[in-house]
Write a structure and sequence with these properties.
The complex is a heterodimer.
Chain A lengths: L4 E12 L2 E12 L3 E5 L6 H8 L7 E6 L2 E2 L5 H7 L1 E3 L12 H9 L2 H6 L11 H11 L18 H13 L5 E5 L7 H16 L3 E5 L3 H7 L2 E6 L2 E6 L1 H6 L1 H8 L1 H10 L1
Parallel strand pairs in A: 3-8, 3-9, 6-7, 7-8
Antiparallel strand pairs in A: 1-2, 1-4, 4-5, 9-10
Helix pairs in contact in A: 3-5, 3-6
Chain B lengths: L5 E7 L1 H7 L7 H24 L4 H26 L6 H19 L3 H20 L8 H21 L8 E2 L7 H24 L1 H11 L1 H6 L4 H27 L1 E2 L7 H13 L6 H15 L7 H15 L4 H10 E7 L1
Antiparallel strand pairs in B: 1-4, 2-3
The chains are: A alpha/beta, B mainly alpha.
Chain lengths: 262, 337
């Protein structure tokens, strides 16, 4: 982990009509870091992902990736630079088998340049590369799972497929929109090491989560949003100790419980 | 057996399963099973001009092929890229006028004017549709429907390109055989080319653009580039049809922008089987000749025509091709529940 910010968000505001979904939010993501973003429903977590990846345009403010201004760029250009995202509501290509889902991101210009997650610059057969990526991310190669239709996969695999779609681009940053939600305890238990491995490989992550226990295990830093405003930023202990956070987010009793895990 | 405790089961034929894999290379039966349907289509289309009597029916076959190209382009755009296009008339008109101008004003031979009109027409159509590519569903359809109306009125009002009289004195094909076989062979090339294209990796991207364009964007690909490429391919089919049409009729006019060219291909796609690419061609082979046969009934023609369409939609809404594929690949049996 270095101190260089790979992503810098400056005073980003997003208004939907009269409602301020984001109000002058600023933060930085350091190279190789995992930043957790938490906050109650409707606090602007997904909106910030949408703004960074260009799916919606910020009303004001600037977003820099490696010092380059990417504010207002179309989503495909931002993804092409290596800033990828997963979707909270999973969006696989349901009518295709899992490995064919990866043929599509592997067709992109960035994948052609980089050769996919493990590629050394030259992209091989897209089907094979797709299966390789799936295997690394927890689809058993010799089982039938990679060949199953995406519509027949359980949630745990679909979440992995979302991550695999990002990895096919050999990304620098992955913005994970609730990858733990809807998973069973055992599925999460296998997802946590995967996230840690992505970090070890030098990918910086922003994780939006409601599952605090697991998030506090992997995240280096936590930021709390409330009604579109940044409440506080710091380590898990600092955030939990903050009175404002307790009030806005948890209610008094739950804090005690969560604190015991943090 | 009581009706309530049995159901119909549909199972793949053994030969279908065998010919899916490498086994097809081992036996002549499997090879025949695979190639027969394709052979029937190719041989059938090639034989049509030979078995059609007189002067009139061979001409109908050529018209069938031109409609089939339009239906193919509709099916490709609607079911593989997700753009519902009513642009048949737009493509035919653009290709037709271009070929007529190239032939009469620049003295180009038909066999040179047609490819140039196809290519240039496809470029023009794609550029004109470029601003509407982000639109989806019915909105894109409305714009493609508007263009032929607008272009026809512009030609009429400004009295350009022959105005309401149209462009007269367009050369015909050098001979009747060339006219028929040229169109048939190009149709076959487009059908098998399109089938191959949608099964390539880029075909998967086209389908992804249809099902899930947000995920395609998030994968670093410009959705509109792929839509434009698909519109180019589809409009090339239509423009080719239009270019051939003016050389067949030796005349190009405002009726090239007639809405028949937009509507009939959709009806043919419904009848033939949407999303199969071959189905729309079969649909045209049925619909266009029926429409010619019904001419004897005068104004009642439309009534019969509509009845046939309604019948198909109600009783065989999946289309001939899907029904035929089921019967060819699978057998049915009753099983006890």
């Amino acid at each position: 982990m270095s101190d260089q910010p790979i992503l810098k968000i400056e005073e980003v505001t997003k208004a939907f009509g009269g409602i301020l979904a984001l109000n002058r939010v600023s933060f930085e993501l350091k190279e190789g870091e995992i930043l957790g973003i938490i906050g109650p429903n409707g606090s602007g977590k997904t909106t910030i992902v949408n703004c960074i990846t260009g799916f919606i345009r910020a009303t004001s403010g600037r977003i820099f990736f490696r010092g380059k201004d990417i504010t207002g760029m179309p989503p495909h250009k931002i993804a092409d630079m290596g800033v990828t995202r997963t979707f909270q509501i999973m969006r696989p290509y349901f009518s295709l088998p899992a490995y064919k889902n990866l043929v599509i991101p592997l067709f992109s210009p960035r994948a052609k340049r980089t050769g996919g997650w493990r590629g050394g610059g030259k992209l091989g057969d897209r089907n094979t590369v797709g299966i390789d990526i799936l295997e690394e991310i927890g689809f058993e190669r010799d089982s039938y799972v990679p060949y199953k239709l995406a519509s027949a996969l359980p949630t745990g695999y679909l979440k992995r497929l979302e991550l695999a779609r990002c990895l096919a681009l050999k990304p620098d940053i992955i913005l994970c929109d609730e990858v733990f939600s809807g998973l069973s305890m055992s599925e999460i238990a296998s997802m946590v090491p995967l996230i840690e491995r992505l970090q070890m490989e030098g990918i910086s992550l922003i994780m939006i989560e409601h599952r605090l226990r697991e998030l506090f295990r992997v995240a280096n830093r936590i930021m709390v949003l409330n009604f579109g405003e940044k409440l506080v930023e710091g380590s898990a202990e600092e955030v939990m100790a903050n009175e404002q956070v307790k009030e806005a987010y948890f209610g008094s009793e739950e804090v005690e419980e969560v604190m015991s895990y943090a | 057996m009581n009706m309530e405790n049995r159901r119909k089961e549909r199972i793949d034929r053994g030969i279908k399963v065998r010919s899916d894999g490498l086994y097809a290379l081992m036996g002549w039966q499997e090879l025949c099973y695979l190639t027969l349907p394709r052979f029937v289509l190719i041989a059938g289309l090639l034989a049509l001009p030979l078995i059609m009597p007189g002067m009139y029916w061979p001409r109908v076959i050529t018209i069938v092929c031109i409609y089939a190209l339009l239906a193919l382009s509709f099916d490709f755009l609607a079911h593989f890229v997700g753009l519902v296009s009513l642009g048949g008339a737009f493509f035919i008109g653009t290709g037709g006028y271009l070929a007529a101008i190239l032939n009469t004003s620049f003295g180009m031979h038909p066999m040179l004017a047609i490819p140039i009109a196809t290519f240039a027409g496809a470029i023009i159509c794609t550029i004109l549709l470029l601003p509407c590519l982000p639109l989806r569903g019915v909105y894109f359809a409305i714009v493609t429907l508007m263009y032929p109306l607008v272009l026809a009125r512009i030609i009429e009002a400004l009295d350009i390109f022959g105005g309401t009289d149209g462009i007269l004195g367009v050369d015909s094909f050098p001979n009747a055989w060339l006219e028929q076989y040229f169109v048939i062979i190009v149709l076959l090339l487009f059908v098998f080319g399109a089938r191959r294209l949608v099964n390539q990796d880029i075909g998967l991207v086209f389908r992804a653009v249809k099902d899930n364009d947000q995920a395609v964007r998030a994968s670093g690909m410009n959705v509109n580039t792929y839509k434009a490429a698909a519109v180019f391919i589809a409009s090339a089919m239509g423009c080719f049809g239009g270019a051939c049409l003016v050389h067949i009729y030796m005349w190009g006019g405002i009726s090239l922008f007639a809405l028949d060219f937009s509507i009939l291909p959709i009806a043919a796609t419904v009848i033939g089987g949407a999303g199969t690419l071959v189905g729309p061609v079969l649909g045209c082979l049925i619909l266009v000749p029926i429409s010619e046969l019904l001419r004897e009934f005068g104004t009642l023609r439309i009534v019969f025509y509509s009845l046939i369409l309604v019948g198909f939609v109600v009783f065989r809404s999946e289309g001939i091709m899907v029904y035929g594929e089921q019967k060819y690949h699978q057998f049915e049996r009753w099983v006890k529940v």
